[in-house]
Amino acid sequence: MPPPRKKHRTLAQGVVEHITGSIQQGVLKPGDKLPTESAIMEQHGVSRTVVREAISHLQAAGWAQTRHGIGTFVIERSNAGLAINAESIVTVMDVLAMLELRISMEAEAAWLAAARRSEAQVAELAKVLGAMQRSVARGSPAVDADVQFHLLIAQATGNRYFVDILSQLGTTIIPRARVNMPQLGHDDPAAYLERVNREHEDIFNAILRKDPEAARAAMRTHLSNSRERLRQAQQQLESNGA
Q: Which of 172, 189, 202, 221 would be a feasible disulfide site paired with 89, CB 3.0-4.6 Å?
């Protein structure tokens, strides 16, 4: 039976976590062939597009390798990653510290993505951005789409380590998945989401026109704004509690 899907997790992430879990538990070993796309689709109840996205994540993170005409195989990983414990990111100060890390890392990822992205990758970004815009219009926090947006940018760098780190962090990379940002800042939720959405649009547009410097600046602005909004909310919270 397919594993239960947790809240705030994309379908592709669910497939990735199930397969990596099987590898870590020794059910799948280096050299083993992964099930066919059709078998994974049936097991998880997902589309072929979702399966291919999951396989792409596994390849980027160094878990698997596809041999054309033969199949996808588990490969030996020389390093299991930085092993950042996402569950340890629980307080406002933890989220602020994570944003500091992300500013330096993802600003460079955006630069690389704008320089290296393919037409297919920018098309996927456009679809996810559209999903975020529709969620914002409904007043939804759009955490899943936000995570996917940043993961797609990491993928577009062509550097699997960006994907590896963000995949480990999951939804913890999105501050509102850990803390109620509008409530902390006494902000209107709709206005807050609209501002965040505009920032994502700026990042996307820079990547679309292959402008690395603008993409880096837009990502830095987006994450710095998130940090500043959260920092001000934290200060207000401390002041009220004094």
A: 172
